[in-house]
Amino acid sequence: MAKILAAITGVEGYVPDYILTNKELATMVDTSDEWIMERIGIKERRILKEPGKGTSDLGAEVVNKLLQKTSTPPNSIDLLICATVTPDMQFPATANIISDKVGITNAFSFDIAAGCSGFLFALVTASKYIEAGQFNKVIVVGAEKMSSIVDYTDRATCPIFGDGAGAVLLEPVTDGLGIIDSILKVDGAGRVFLHQKAGGSLKPATHETVDAREHFIYQEGQAVFKYAVSHMADISVEMMKKHNISPDDLDWFVPHQANMRIIEAAARRMGIKKEKVMINIQKYGNTTAATLPLCLWEWEPQLHKGDNIILATFGAGFTWGSVYLKWAYDTKK
Ligand code: UT7
User: Fold this and answer.
1) Tell me: the pLDDT tens digits for 287-321?
2) 82 among known catalytic residues
3) Has residue 80 been placed in a domain?
4) Quick check: CB of 203 below 6 Å from ligand 1?
């Protein structure tokens, strides 16, 4: 019997309307469009401004669009995994809230918190349920309201992040397409360079933690940059070597969108031309767990059945990884 693999059979993206430009940021902190473009490569990012809305609202928007686009009844979904570091609340899982909002009632769901690698970790986890023959329809959503944990008085972090969500539908295929392989890694020692200081069990919220701005992202940018460049490039090259994929064989490289310089360094190490690299960081910034599906969503019309694609990430944890897949469908024009 032909081996069952999990394939992405639909992808959607959603970003909120409000556009926070570098120009506006320069009225909030001591920065400039020139500095941000040169050091990070971001022109603007989207922000969820409406009061009373959280990550699950972004997730529900994108999952609803995905269900409609793929003509999938909500109650046919077996599992929904949400990758996020900005859950609506500590518990219950944002995945459960999304499922409730979109009418997925016949499934189980859970969150994965793996920083910017969350979508990749969730995608691989989901694929295993399908490969095992247990499930037929699984949704993986990466959704973040990063603006809820960004300190807009800290010029070193506030230009980087944006809000958004992306989602994919995974289904079983037996034609050799779909998710071929994955390499996922963590190094918990990296937590010192990128974390949220308070709000968890180690340091619950108090007036002092709020006054000390400890509920925002803490990042030692240069250290994270160094690790991100080497680890994202290494793991992508490792995947190419493992499957004998030459730069010519690879149709698309989908890197996490954290910094244009990190993306360019990884592509250089892989020997990939820039035309084959999906880059939308200039429009959306770093949407953490949403960057990869937002790229796939934007590039979907250009993808062809059988395309060789490598996705790669690096993020808080530290977490990093790469996935090699063969795209499973031609988009109906
Ligand atoms: O997705 C999660 C993983 N995260 C990442 O991958 C982020 C990795 N790190 C980075 O992308 C970069 O390190 C940053 C974008 C965060 C910072 O860029 P950098 O080139 O590493 O800058 P730096 O931290 O070395 O700072 C250089 C200078 C400093 O000034 P002095 O001390 O040299 O006078 C900063 O204060 O740039 C200053 N600076 C800024 N200047 C204008 C920092 N942020 C800004 C800013 N505008 N927004």
Assistant:
1) 999 999 999 999 999 999 999 999 999 999 999 99
2) no
3) yes
4) no
pLDDT of 41-89, one tens digit each?
999 999 999 999 999 999 999 999 999 999 999 999 999 999 999 999 9
Are 188 and 238 part of one and the same domain? yes
75 is annotated as an active-site residue? no
43 CA to centre of ligand 1 in angstroms: 15
How far are the Cα atoms of 30, 98, 120 from residue 93, in angstroms, in the given order?
37, 9, 18
Q: What is the pLDDT of residues 170-194, one digit of tens each?
A: 999 999 999 999 999 999 999 999 9
The answer as to whether 332 is a domain residue is: no
Return all residues near 16 (Cβ < 8 A) that are at least 6 apart.
46, 47, 48, 49, 50, 58, 163, 164
In this structure, the answer to whether residues 11 and 115 fall within a common structural domain is: yes
The CATH number of the domain holding residue 229 is: 3.40.47.10
Tokens of 13: 């993206």
pTM of the model: 0.96
Q: Which domain holds residue 161?
A: 5-176
